[in-house]
Amino acid sequence: MEPAVLAFVLWIFGFLSVPAAGYPNGKVREACSSMMPSHGHSPQPSPEHTISVNETKFRPGNHIKVSLSGPVFEGFFIQARNAENLAGPAVGSFMLGEERISQLLTCGLVKNSAVSHTSKSKKTNVEAYWVAPTDVPEHVQFLATVVEKYKIFWVKIPGPIISQPNAPPLTTPTSITPESLPTSQPVFHLTTSFNASSCGITKFCIRNPPKCNPGAAYCFFLSFKQSNYSVLIEMSGPSEGYIAFALSHDQWMGDDDAYLCINEDHRININTAYLSGRTPPVLDSENGLEDLSWRVADGLLQCSFRRNLHLPAYKGRFNLDANYYIFLADGEASEGGLIHKHHRQPLITNGMYNVTDSPKDVGGSRSPLLLKLHASLMFVAWMTTVSIGVIVARFFKPVWPHSLFGKEIWFQVHRMLMLTTVLLTSIAFVLPFIYRGGWSEWAGFHPYLGCTVMALAIFQPLMAGFRPPPHSPRRQVFNWIHWSTGTTARILAVVTMFLGMDLPALNLPDPWDTYTMIGFVAWHVSIDILLEIHSYCLIRKVEVIDEDRIQILQSLTSAEAEGHTFKEIVLTIYICGNIAFLLTFLAAIHQL
Ligand code: HEM
Ligand SMILES: *[C@@H]1O[C@H](CO)[C@@H](O)[C@H](O)[C@H]1NC(C)=O
Ligand SMILES: *[C@@H]1O[C@H](CO)[C@@H](O)[C@H](O)[C@H]1NC(C)=O
Ligand SMILES: *[C@@H]1O[C@H](CO)[C@@H](O)[C@H](O)[C@H]1NC(C)=O
Ligand SMILES: *[C@@H]1O[C@H](CO)[C@@H](O)[C@H](O)[C@H]1NC(C)=O
């Protein structure tokens, strides 16, 4: 899970690309239990289409011909269910009548237990054959969903009921309408926010920020409470769209068991998904979760459900009594329950935990420590030490010309700051490699630019070590190369930092980070220009005095002394501003 649950990406029901029909190819497995096309619209009342069968009695193994007909329609979805439990799973399997317009789907554990369209071509009649299984209920009812157009559809149109011979008459009256059908997820309303008082005592909790109160507007909360063979899971967090958690064997994407609470028009759907790789998750049609309940209030999504420790019948559900990294993600969802990629890096626990073992109360981080260190050291090096070092070399030669331990002071300061820059860069450089154990493949241009900056940063002091003596004719060449290499490195470093700040593994708040960085560059450039103009004026002044020839020596020194004080004041102000920018960035990194 690289930048972790990167795959809580767009769960697209396919309709974004082809807005005319929900599932133009009819692969509607997500709709297995609700039979809803998820078009983001409400179903129509009073159906116009009818389902008919060629027999009303059946025995296990019998074939029944099922037809759906009515006004022209584009999509359909047919299932047979136990007439006494219409909210239950599909029963029996189908064989196709006409393969061109229909296809078989597998709902739940029963192969070929539903039929749907293959394309949105217009049709008025479809046929299929239902095969009664051996463990068939006594009464079976056919249900169909018909999509006339994208926005016009009917859900769970009740069809005929067929019965086994000698079956007692059906007890429940079956005059169902789509509205009166029990939904596939009987959900309950939570009345209060979750309670963290037993975290670490009877339940395992993850909270972000640490120790926050799950009722608070900024608190992400996840808890696991085991009782016998089942675990009650509560999750809440501030989100308009969805909140989710995933169990993972590692800190990267792929092979993860995810649980999502998705806000759809102020109703929450609780779903599971198996994240197989870096592809968008496909929500499971059936998930083995029980006791679903939820609440949307005060900008907070809350959901809770129960699941067994082991769910071997459901593919992709992990056993809860093992060690996992746990991810907490949130993001936007749009109409129809589409999930968009989380815009923040998900929270990852700092280690692997067994949630059924001794209860703990842990936190997590949205960014790995090594990457935080990487960014912090790079900020110190390329915002502060390098900038001050360059200003000193450019403007303070005449100000600090005196020797200290055999070298001029400006030179000592410059060399010290620049070597610090190289040292910090070298240390910071290896950290992401240690963290990733290799090359960061999904980090865009940042690593490439970063390597260039590193190379230039090494080259610069090596070259300076072999510089020609002053007054040598080659000294001018050195000066030029030294200046241009340094300037290139600094410009590239700024670009690298801009790109680094938006990497998912260390995403500083947007757009704050960009503006602050622009602010820093503006601050630096203005000071640079100010000092440049000042130097220019000072030279002009000296020239003018020179021509005047009278009080030459006296004025020169007083003008220079004035200039030096000015430069020192500007440098002090610059350093204060620079450190203020640096500290805001370090604080922002610390908070991730
Ligand atoms: C000029 C300064 C910088 C240099 C030279 C630099 C260099 C690099 C290099 C070479 C890598 C790739 C390492 C690898 O492939 O494993 C890297 C990764 C990274 N850098 Fe920087 N970096 C700089 C500044 C920053 C800043 C300021 C930030 C954040 C605010 C940052 C955030 C990151 C992150 C998050 C990664 C890891 C990406 C991932 O694997 O997900 N870097 N950096
Ligand atoms: C109903 O259709 C099935 C499958 O084609 C067939 O086996 C059965 O004999 C038909 N029943 C009647 C009464 O036609
Ligand atoms: C949380 O639960 C504990 C014990 O179950 C109870 O004493 C406390 O009042 C509850 N707190 C809230 C805010 O509901
Ligand atoms: C757990 O099991 C024990 C005995 O096996 C039983 O008494 C208790 O009610 C069960 N608890 C729950 C919450 O089901
Ligand atoms: C997790 O904890 C449970 C309960 O203590 C224990 O039975 C199980 O073996 C543990 N699993 C691992 C992988 O340590």
TrEMBL record:
Q: Where are the transmembrane segments?
A: 375-396, 416-435, 447-466, 478-500, 512-531, 569-589
Q: Residue limits of the DOMON domain?
A: 216-331
Give GO terms for biological process. intracellular iron ion homeostasis
Instruction: Give compartment(s).
Output: Membrane
Domain Reelin: residue ranges:
13-178
Nuclease keyword on record: no
Provide the GO MF annotations for this entry. Answer: oxidoreductase activity, acting on metal ions
User: Where does the UniProt annotation place the signal sequence?
Assistant: 1-22
Q: Which Pfam families does the entry link to?
A: DOMON, Reeler
* Gene3D superfamilies reported for this sequence: 1.20.120.1770, Reeler domain
Query: Which GO CC terms are listed, alphabetically?
Result: membrane
Q: How does it sit in the membrane?
A: Multi-pass membrane protein
Q: Does the keyword Translocase apply?
A: no
Q: What cofactor is needed?
A: heme b
Which of UniProt's keywords are assigned here?
Electron transport, Glycoprotein, Iron, Membrane, Signal, Transmembrane, Transmembrane helix, Transport
Where in the numbering of this chain does the Cytochrome b561 domain appear? 336-534
Coiled-coil features, chain-numbered ranges:
none
Q: What is its main location?
A: membrane
Write down the InterPro entries for this protein, in alphabetical order: Cyt_b561/ferric_Rdtase_TM, DOMON_domain, Ferric-chelate_Red/DefProt, Reeler_dom, Reeler_sf
Q: Which family does it belong to?
A: Belongs to the FRRS1 family.
Q: What is this protein called?
A: Ferric chelate reductase 1
According to its UniProt entry, this protein's organism is Chelonoidis abingdonii
What taxonomic ancestry is recorded? Eukaryota, Metazoa, Chordata, Craniata, Vertebrata
The gene coding this protein: FRRS1
